[in-house]
Design goal:
With 266 residues, this protein is an alpha+beta fold. It contains seven helices and ten strands. 30% of the residues lie in helices and 23% in strands. A hairpin with a 5-residue loop joins strand 8 and strand 9.
Length: 266
């Protein structure tokens, strides 16, 4: 893709040819280490952040570097850790939500087993926006579907569609006042059944990549009866966004709703 051409291949201060790229999280310049030279500690090339601007590659942004998950992957995170302003990263995340919310909803249903109806989408968008989830330290352009759910807080499952057979049976077994009409949750009398997410973790893999996970919790009348670790699949989401509109099932009403919450001029 680079054709081994400038600006991806440049001479450094020592006159050596080095390879540069752009970090997919913070958009800062990175140098590719070990692409042609065997490394002592790993067989895998990796990207090392540059703390200066690289000609025709990217301008260095110190604040973006500080919040970069790939530069600082093993830190402790909680939902209250937020940047002070949107900046380029926040705008990028909002743009993805605005333009790909139908795919975010699709992935949400895939990793939870809970169908994201229009009503649930609206409630989650409202909570995500009010909590300013796009400012969360752990949010980036690669993990939008998962962190959207993580920062949208808790929601009722009453009246929701459960598309995962195993989860549906587990709810029947643990929630005595719950029954189903097809795949839709119904209750015999007022009861409280909710889902929410916790324990977002970012770690470095042995191949110097980013591994992320969080936990899905289901509660019945305030008591947790189900917990599941969810591993983020960054590549799957990136591939989904890269499909042409003709090659994927679009739900225009969901993207239109996201655009109401996050207008292009906002």
């Amino acid at each position: 893709m680079t054709r081994k051409a400038d600006p991806f291949y440049q001479h450094n201060d020592k006159g050596e040819i080095v390879q540069y790229a752009v970090c997919p999280d913070c958009n800062n310049p990175i140098q590719i280490i070990g692409l042609y030279t065997k490394l002592k500690n790993t067989d895998h090339p990796y990207g090392k952040h540059c703390t200066r601007s690289i000609r025709d590659i990217a301008d260095y942004n110190a604040q973006a570097f500080e919040y970069c998950s790939l530069a600082n992957p093993n830190r402790s995170l909680n939902k209250d850790m937020k940047r002070k302003s949107k900046g380029e990263k926040g705008e990028q995340i909002i743009s993805i939500i605005r333009n790909y919310f139908d795919q975010i909803a699709f992935i949400f249903s895939k990793f939870t087993g809970i169908y994201m109806s229009r009503g649930l989408a609206v409630r989650m968008l409202k909570k995500y926006k009010s909590s300013e989830g796009y400012l969360y330290f752990g949010a980036n352009s690669m993990n939008v579907p998962w962190i959207f759910a993580y920062m949208a807080n808790n929601h009722s499952l009453f009246g929701q569609k459960i598309v995962d057979d195993t989860l549906r049976e587990l709810i029947k077994k643990n929630c005595q006042n719950i029954y189903f009409e097809g795949e839709w949750i119904r209750t015999k009398k007022y009861t409280d059944i909710e889902f929410w997410f916790t324990k977002h973790r970012q770690t470095m893999t042995p191949e110097n990549g980013l591994s992320e996970s969080m936990e899905l919790k289901l509660t019945y009348n305030g008591k947790t009866f189900f917990s599941k670790k969810i591993d983020f699949d960054h590549d799957y989401f990136q591939n989904l966004m890269n499909y042409s509109d003709d090659c994927r099932t679009r739900k225009k009403e969901l993207t239109d709703k996201a655009k109401e919450f996050f207008p292009a001029a906002d």
